[in-house]
């Protein structure tokens, strides 16, 4: 007797895909909570934009710092000139 006739082949077990971690996988999070998945995607997009615009932002801050230094130096120069003239009230408000 032939075994395949008496005992036919059993169907193979179905192979399942491994479970995706929703904390790491946005597609898995989409199935659980679409709002949270969208929020995460928006955060990732914002981070990419921040990285892309970082150099421009730093250049703007450096320019502001340079302008502040120039303004401060101008004030110090003025105060040095004013203090060379002496006390303004001593001679009845006459400036030399």
Keywords:
96 residues, mainly alpha
Which SSEs are present, and which pair or pack?
Elements: H1 3-6, H2 26-32, H3 34-84
Helix pairs in contact: 2-3
Helical content band: 55-70%
Strand content: under 5%
Taken in chain order, the helices and strands follow as: HHH
List unreliable stretches of 5+ residues. Answer: none
Got a strand count? 0
Task: Tell me the Rg in angstroms.
Answer: 38 Å
**Largest beta-sheet details:** none
Overall structural class, as computed from helix and strand content, comes to: mainly alpha
Q: With helices defined by DSSP (H or I, 4 residues minimum), what is the helix count? A: 3
Mean pLDDT: 87
- State the end-to-end CA separation: 130 Å
Rough outline: rod-shaped
Characterize the structure shown.
The chain has helices at residues 3-6, 26-32, 34-84. The chain has 96 residues and is mainly α. The longest helix has 51 residues, at 34-84. It starts with a helix and ends in a 12-residue tail after the last helix. The mean pLDDT is 87.
Give the gist of this structure:
This protein has helices at residues 3-6, 26-32, 34-84.
């Amino acid at each position: 007797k032939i075994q395949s006739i008496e005992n036919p082949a059993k169907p193979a077990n179905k192979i399942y895909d491994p479970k995706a971690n929703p904390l790491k996988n946005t597609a898995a999070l989409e199935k659980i909570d679409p709002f949270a998945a969208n929020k995460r995607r928006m955060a990732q997009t914002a981070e990419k934009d921040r990285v892309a615009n970082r150099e421009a932002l730093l250049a703007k801050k450096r320019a502001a710092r340079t302008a502040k230094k120039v303004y401060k130096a101008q004030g110090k120069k003025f105060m040095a000139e004013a203090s060379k003239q002496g006390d303004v009230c001593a001679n009845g408000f006459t400036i030399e």
